[in-house]
Structure formats: C-alpha cells, structure tokens
Amino acid sequence: MIKSENPGAVPASEQEEKISADLPEETPAQGCEELAAQVTELKERALRQAAELDNYKKRTEREKAEFFKRANEGLVKELLPVLDNLERALASAKEHTQSDPNLVQGVEMIHGELLKTLGRHGLEPVQAVGQAFDPELHEAMMQQEDPEQDENTVLAEAQKGYTYEGRLLRPAMVVVSRKPA
C-alpha cells in the first residue's frame, strides 16, 4: 500500500462525493425551465432597450424641430420693424399725390411678398380693429369715448401685432373704446 504524503487527506473519490452532495439535484427539466426563463428575460430586456432607443430618436427629432422653430422665431421678430417701415412708406406714398405710382406699386409688391413669405413660415397678423379688447393679444395705448361702439372694442391700431406658430410674438397696440361719461 502506498502511503499518502498528507496523513489527514481525504481520498479524491470521497471529495467528489462530498461536493456532489452539497449541490442540489437538478433534473433536465429544471435546467430547461431556467434557460427558458433567462431567454424570456433577455427578450424583454432587448424589447425595452429597443423601445427606449425609439423614444430617444423621437424626442431628439422633436427637440430639433422645436430648436429650429425658435431660431426662426428670432429672425421673424427681427424682421417685424422692416415690415412696419414698409407699411409706413406705403401709407406716406399714398397720402402724397406726387408719388410715382410705379414706385408705390413696387413697394406694395415687396410688402405683399414679404407678408406671404413670413406667412408661409408661421407668421400671422393679430386681428384687432372692431374686435373685443383681449389683453392676451392687444396692448391698450389709450381709451377713447365712442357712443356708437360697445365698451372695450378696439377702435384703431397704432401698431400691428403678430403671432408666430400660434404663439404671440408681438401684441397689437390699440385704442380701446369706452362709454361717454
């Protein structure tokens, strides 16, 4: 008989029996169920990640569109004084009978094209004259007595107001009616 170098050592076959006794008995069916559960979990995780990616793409597209809309809003707002000056030039030219009709017609065409172009991009004038005063859209510059109009009706417009993409860009500056004292 061969002597063991380690007198207290347990033979290898006994060690294997101890290890296998510590492990739970696993049937082939249990192994398949665990694998199926793992596959299901991984599929669900993949679907969640695909949905998150899709949501991320949609959100970035919305943010990008909103950014460009707001960037255009700044440009449109800066063009409003140009539009106002064109309207003043037209009004002045129409008052003076000595004005060249071709020049007036040319300025009217430029004014019309500018309004159409800005309108295609979302600019709309605020309706004021004859409307009820709306503090959301109008800024009252003064009140004027008018027995023929209902109280708080817009009588005149000192400066046009505009909305851009449904949002107020500049309120209309108006004269509002009041009943005589």
Automatic annotation (TrEMBL):
Write out the entry's keywords from A to Z.
Chaperone, Coiled coil, Cytoplasm, Stress response
The record's CDD domains line, in alphabetical order, gives:
GrpE
Compartments it resides in: Cytoplasm
Coiled coil stretches, renumbered: 32-63
Give the Gene Ontology MF terms in alphabetical order: adenyl-nucleotide exchange factor activity; protein homodimerization activity; protein-folding chaperone binding; unfolded protein binding
- Region annotation (Disordered) maps to 1-30
Q: Name one GO biological process term.
A: protein folding
Major location category of this protein: cytoplasm
Q: Name one GO cellular component term.
A: cytoplasm
Family designation: Belongs to the GrpE family.
The subunit field of the Swiss-Prot or TrEMBL record says: Homodimer.
So what does this one do? Participates actively in the response to hyperosmotic and heat shock by preventing the aggregation of stress-denatured proteins, in association with DnaK and GrpE. It is the nucleotide exchange factor for DnaK and may function as a thermosensor. Unfolded proteins bind initially to DnaJ; upon interaction with the DnaJ-bound protein, DnaK hydrolyzes its bound ATP, resulting in the formation of a stable complex. GrpE releases ADP from DnaK; ATP binding to DnaK triggers the release of the substrate protein, thus completing the reaction cycle.
Name this polypeptide is given: Protein GrpE
Origin organism of this chain? Desulfoferula mesophila
Q: Which gene encodes it?
A: grpE
